[in-house]
Amino acid sequence: MSKSPDSVERFNYLYGLINLAVVFCIVWVLWFLFMHADGVMKLYTPMYGFSLVAILLASVILLGKVLGWPADPGQALPAGKAIGQGILGVVLSLAIMYVVYFLVFWLFIGKLGVAYFSPLALVAGGGTGAEPWNAREWSSTAILYFAAAFLWWALVWDLAFGRWPWQKDSRWVVGWSRLFVVSFFSMVTFAVLFHPHVCMLFPEAQKMAGANPWWEVWASTKSAFFSLGVVLCTLFWVVFSDLFWEGRPWSWLERGGEANLAKGIVTFLGTLFLGLVLVYVFTNIFNAIWMEPYQGGQYTDGPDWRFIHMGEISGFCVLFAFIWKYYFNNWPNGLPLLLRAIVRSVLGVAGGLLIYWFYYSPLAVLVLGKVPGRAQPDDQPLVWTLLFLAVLLMQVQFFHNWPLRRAESQGK
Hints:
Strand content: under 5%
Low-confidence stretches: 1-9, 407-412
Largest sheet: none
Number of domains: 1
């Protein structure tokens, strides 16, 4: 919902900067406790920590974007109520993460259905390489890929289909219906884009369980980092059009202010097409910098690394888009839509590159304990990016932007 001119003028950008600094510090504390190589838990292996953070973000998105809880995260609440609801949202997100990760994947699906979702099932099955650390990394990779598919469908469904086709139903009917639909399409997406690669992880490829990765011929890699790169490059456009372009051009297909099937299909295919265009652009930029990649190439020479790296850059831009939207009031707001969309998009790309510079600078080596350099096999920038997004969205959705919302509401 757009703000009135008076509310735009009263927005305290300094207060937004302070909020951003506080959130950054919270993310750093969480990183040191759970992910840092010299921290407490050391969960960054990296795939185990990667998948845990991805499921945590998926839990936050599930509550806010799919189920629609709380009902109006943009509403200003008294401090006490905002804090109470925020704590409840955090607890629910952590509970969903635990249930989905350890009970649904590890103990239910992994043990009774698809073994690669559970390290316990992989170790029990035996065979070459089926030892606890490798088994956990393999199952973490599969869970991560499913979380990526879920995040894609949750965000694109919210932008493309909205409440359709349940516009006349209650909020809970809409929420639970969207959950089942998003979960269904996530399973299909996982089966087509990620399952073939997971089957190739094992010493003896699961030839009868997974098709040969269909993208190998023209992507020059069997790795599903290709698919992850495409998904993240597509989410770049989903988030930019939702936050920076205020739902355009897709909202022009709405009827009576509500989404419909035509809008949903056009939005899904349109953002996917733009995502593939972005993959093409990144591919040419990387080829100009590092020359052509080749199968078997290591680090910057590997096609798989190129695809995950373009996804990482897109992730930085997505993170900055949320930061700019909620901590800097999506400036500018007084210009015509086309101009403000262009300015915001330019700022979004520049901000993403600024985060890129920070992450690959010596400062991040000191703060995050990451491996120096850009192309390291055990370095996954998306872990930090997704953790930052999860904390940011918790404040926005569950705490109703408190205490930033309190400052924005003063004097009204």
